[in-house]
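Moderator note: this is an archived Q&A kept for reference. The question asked for a predicted structure of one protein chain; the sequence and the answer are reproduced below.
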Amino acid sequence: MDLTALLLSRLQFAFTISFHIIFPSFTIGLAAWLTVLEALGLVTGRPVYRTVFEFWLKIFGVAFGMGVVSGVVMGFQFGTNWSVFAGKVGPIQGVLLSYETFTAFFLEASFFGILLFGRPRVPPWFYLFSTAMVALGTTLSAFWIMVNNSWMQVPVGYATTNGQFAPDDWLAILFSPVVWVRFPHMLLASYLTGASCVAGTGAWYLLRGEYHAEARVMLRMGLFLAAVLVPAQLFFGHLVGDYVHGKQPVKFAAIEGRWHDEQPASEVLIALPDPAAQTNHYAISVPILGSLIGSMSFTSKEVGLTDFPPQDRPPVAIPFFTFRVMVGCGLLMLFLAWYGSYLSVKERIGEKRWMLWAIFLGFPLPWIAILTGWFTAEVGRQPWAVYGVLRTAEALTPFLTVREATISLLVFCAVYAFIFGFGIYYIYRLLREGPAGRLIEPPIGAVPNRPMSVVHHHEAPTVLAGE
């Protein structure tokens, strides 16, 4: 393998974004679920909702902090490794990132402090409002990022001025049909991540024979939410496939593993793609299904990779396999959610320990699906940084050396591994302590101008759990 600065920079960005996306995808879903829990607690008056809320608020706080820290370097990489890209797309993407700061970050920063320290100081309705504002902030963050990325996938509403891509129609950029397919797809993926983690935690406690009331609330709510969301996610996934089919046909051909035009087209379920021979080995295919999936027709002609020059094709194996992993995770989640919800309604889930184990061990499925979905989208877009108008090789910082790219990649790997290790260890301690742990309420010494005093009162009964 030729370890060029371009390859190393791509690996670095892939590593950092893959690491970072783990945390926003979790906190977006968890923030929305915390809002539901707080509302249920106010309406029903059941203490179990308050207990579960406070328990997951601690975990949300840690994951939120890790997401912020891991995301800081995203912007710096545009300047260090991708300066040509930053210079060309800055008039559009710089503005979109600013919108994220002025909307999402301000909401999150303003109201997250109330969640941590404000319960005894504000009315219950305002605390619920604050929870909803944090959830809205995480959602807006996802929206602006998806607008940004969707413009890279299908650039619209721009004009080229002095070598730069300048916006000439913000409404076209913000309301691109691609955005309003991909944004709900990402949002549902985040909700499923939160639901899966909550249900998996409830299953874990039931397997251990602990916190029965809280565990049943987590398990039921997580399963019921997933049972509704997975079919919706599969529907929006189909809509995303429609946009890829229409706007990025070479990516669609790579995902399908289709090398030559077919009419009607078969659907390759699994195979071993061979780019050198431009064929698939050991292929298992279903006749006609490819045309039905691609064009909702039994007779449509579907294009193959050989219709495009070799330099315009993505690496076929990665989108081909990652797409199938993503779909497989979705089908597994559908089974766990529907069958688990059925057993829960019948009050029989406690009798099926194998099902509890499956739900517990299945909590990473949404994360795997998100990562493989991103790999499919981003690698499938290659060799373009901005599809059809700016190649990835042309977006690299021209004076970046292999040595510099290697050092920065190794440093990022080391720092992120350190952050991840300690963060996951602390979350594990919170999970082990359980929902019966001490609630997040500030001790007497915590005042608005000294909020961090909470962490110094280890002997107080209401400090952050985990001591």
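Archived answer notes: The longest helix spans residues 5-44.
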